[in-house]
Amino acid sequence: MDTFASVLRSVCLVAGAALLVAFVVTAVRRRSAGASFGELADLMERDWFSAGKVFFAVLTGLVGTWAAAYVGGTRGELTESVAVLFPLGIVAAFAVCRFADGAGGRALGEKAVALVVAPIALGAIMTGW
Fold this sequence. Notes:
Blueprint (H helix, E strand, L loop, with lengths): L1 H31 L4 H12 L2 H21 L6 H23 L7 H21 L1
Helix pairs in contact: 1-2, 1-4, 1-5, 2-4, 3-4, 3-5, 4-5
């Protein structure tokens, strides 16, 4: 399980970093084209990753770590868990913004899977066991 958790941490870290870099590149391009900071904030919230969704995914991931500790795993400190779960929150929020909100909107169930179920399960695996 430790090997799987290490691979999962690496994948989320690389994906989260790639999303942040891609957003920064897009923001710089839009800003040089004359977009205001308000338009950039709206772009981030609508098309990339909402800060509230990232925060919610991190909190549900923490619930997964606490559930894993309750079942019998070991939960790390809060500061360690948040550092591991933050890239997961970015990836989950991006998935909701791009796939669940796009193309005419999707069902609430798909958003719940991306922001609740997946972070709880991944949080349990990544920091709990």
